[in-house]
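Protein Record: Sequence and Backbone Structure Tokens
======================================================
Scope: a single protein chain, as residues and as a discrete description of its fold.
Tokens: labelled as protein backbone structure tokens, with as many entries as the chain has residues.
Position: the record begins directly beneath this header, with no further notes in between.
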Amino acid sequence: MASEQLVEVVRGNLVESIHNGHIAVVDYKGRLLASKGDVEKVIFARSSMKPLQAIPIIETGASETFHFTDADLSLACASHNGEAQHTDRVQALLEQMKLEVNDLQCGTHPPRWRAADELLMQKGVPITPIYNNCSGKHSGMLATALQMNESIEDYYLPEHPVQQRILQVVHELTETPIDDIEIGIDGCGVPVHGVPIKNLAHAFAKMAKPVDENEVRRAAIEKVTHAMMSAPEMVGGTKRFCTDFMRAEKGRMFGKVGAEGVYCIGDIETGIGIALKIEDGNARATSAVALAVLEQMDLLTDKVKEQLADYYRPTLKNARDEEIGCIRPSFVLEK
């Protein structure tokens, strides 16, 4: 099945561009409730998988050994801006583990938050792996390696026990056979997992309502999702959809962006999971689609919609800061 149109990009009175994609809405029992496009399409979840990747931090006991707070655990799920609130916490975690910044194997890139990047340039501070948006995730991976007395210099490699534990979690929560999980390498150097969109949505549904999981897994899941929702500023940062969405939902929903146009949501109240993929990888369409899915599933209140209006129908502005168009949802879910 081909992708279907999800978003129109409007300039003046003309639809200038469109974004196609795929959507799956699944409950915690694995029932497909609504869809658009091909729910069997295998996609790389990219950073949307981070909440699942954080589960071993708790299950190995690393979170207790290294005194992870909710904010620390939330940061392990983050694609953060590289603001001081993020990098200071990563630094504190490394010190708690008696590690150095260079032990992070995530590579470097400038902070996503422009003000943080400009401050570094003004001060002449070199960019290190701590500013990588995945440095929190990598800190969590290092914590599990230390906890299990494993090597840390190669924790990022697919065959390392750190990554094998994560693969097992992905297999169990997405209910995808291990041999069917596509493995690539993410932007930060660790394995990235490819599963069908409906399986990814199912995993987020199970994260939202882990009633059928064993006691250990259920407790770990609840700690991860609680941490994300209680410290959403760690997951993204200033003017980021993940952060503003979870703040608006006030402990009911958790959401996580993934590169190349992926977004996933779990609703604690209903046990519903949502996964979407913009076919051309353009992230500008994800928040509008995510909120439109919630609205069509009667999961978006008027209050939250109003709070997140800039994400529901993002405006297009020119260099004079004049509004000249918008990005608007253009699909109807098949229920």
User: Anything to note?
Assistant: The two ends are 16 Å apart (CA to CA). The CA atoms of residues 62 and 135 lie 17 Å apart.
